[in-house]
């Protein structure tokens, strides 16, 4: 929404916020002493002002140009002649304003409420004169063009007042207003393309200058645009923004004048597009209740259910029995949005609804979006659950449960059992889960083979069950020359270790069951007194 009420700040010529390189001119009498860098109001530098090379008359084309870094709203201009401590005698009696911004194809000329381009300036060299413009202009570059009814030498200093243009409107298109009895209800301040009149394109004028019209529209017509009913299909307007906007409301300033058959619009249709070419079928229709009493100008708000758009087209329909329709200003309640659109028909849900707005939409798009969202959510939950279960399985496979029974690792060697208590166990990279009871202990490496235990019965309970088996049958105790060696050797990830273990009598073991078979041998479960022990038989190498 355009709000320029406090837009009257000094823009930087006098305080040098505008740099010298931002100031240029068509020519200079002397670049060093009277160049454009000296055209700063209320400042004395060089010879006191900018002086063009040629003398000035009503047809002169000399100009002083200031380039702003961003689009800027200019509401007033201050001019001053060349004083130069009393030595100067040159000043401009009048000037014109030309301006440009990136959305314009050419330089535009400012016109006041009487459609005049010439603005009065100074009558002496010392005093500065500030002129407030009848309508603000939006410019990236502005030129001051001095003019005179008589040929004379002119020097100037200037200052500008306004503010940065913080809106994103690029332009609006409109059908030109009409005439009646020699009075113009045109959008004469429109600065876009006039070649296709009465259709105006690519510019900004009365409808977006932050100036609203007064009562008695036929007398105070300067701020109004008026259309006669002779048009078919009502009055069409199109507004284009420089970015996607989240539009929540449109405000139109209008008025009645019953004696001359002028009434506010009876209804409005609004179409939206994200690219300016494809317009949504989701059209807003607004019915404006007829007012048969008040002629006071008023704002009429068209509520919009948060529509995302870059272009908005409006069609205003004439009031019942009226011959004229007047509008002085159109504003949008909107803000920037970061939504990336997959299509142009997007509605952001809003809990507020209005009785006078009807939107034709079967809700299919929103329903499909909800279904898709929940399907995506379900798939994501399933994937996360599978990943979590796999991770939990790996952790359980590699770490013993804190509630597990304490196990003792035993190795048979001849007529005795050697054992030690393992404070912690873990899965060997090359064994099965059932073979995960071997302890990894730091020992001195040696070069030898595994000690081969003698195979026999653990006790009378297992008299007929061999405790350990070889690869091809019952273990042959004659395979090793020293089966009673007290040195037990095993391999852990390719390194060979050995240790001397305490001896345990074999007849104390009671066979229970086969636990499993790993790459290096078989593991059986036995009882030793009141504890469970694992007995592993190592394969011969």
TrEMBL record:
| Top-level taxonomy | Eukaryota, Metazoa, Ecdysozoa, Nematoda, Chromadorea
> What Pfam families does its record include?
DDR1-2_DS-like (PF21114), F5_F8_type_C (PF00754)
Which Gene Ontology BP annotations are present?
A: motor neuron axon guidance; positive regulation of axon regeneration
Q: Polar residues bias located where?
A: 27-36
Region Disordered, as annotated, extends over 27-49
The record ties this protein, via InterPro entries, to: DDR1-2_DS-like, FA58C, Galactose-bd-like_sf, Kinase-like_dom_sf
Q: Which PROSITE patterns match?
A: FA58C_1 (PS01285), FA58C_3 (PS50022)
Q: What is this protein called?
A: F5/8 type C domain-containing protein
Membrane-traversing stretches: 366-388
Q: Which organism is it from?
A: Caenorhabditis latens
Q: Where in the cell is it found?
A: Cell membrane; Cell projection, Axon; Perikaryon
PANTHER family cross-referenced by the UniProt entry: MULTICOPPER OXIDASE-RELATED, SMOKE ALARM, ISOFORM D
UniProt-recorded Gene Ontology molecular function terms: ATP binding
Q: Name the SMART domains for this protein.
A: FA58C
Task: Spell out the GO cellular component terms annotated for this protein, sorted alphabetically and separated by semicolons.
Answer: axon; perikaryon; plasma membrane
Superkingdom of this entry's organism? Eukaryota
Q: Into which family does the record put it?
A: Belongs to the protein kinase superfamily. Tyr protein kinase family. Insulin receptor subfamily.
User: What are the protein's UniProt keywords?
Assistant: ATP-binding, Cell membrane, Cell projection, Disulfide bond, Glycoprotein, Membrane, Neurogenesis, Nucleotide-binding, Receptor, Signal, Transmembrane, Transmembrane helix
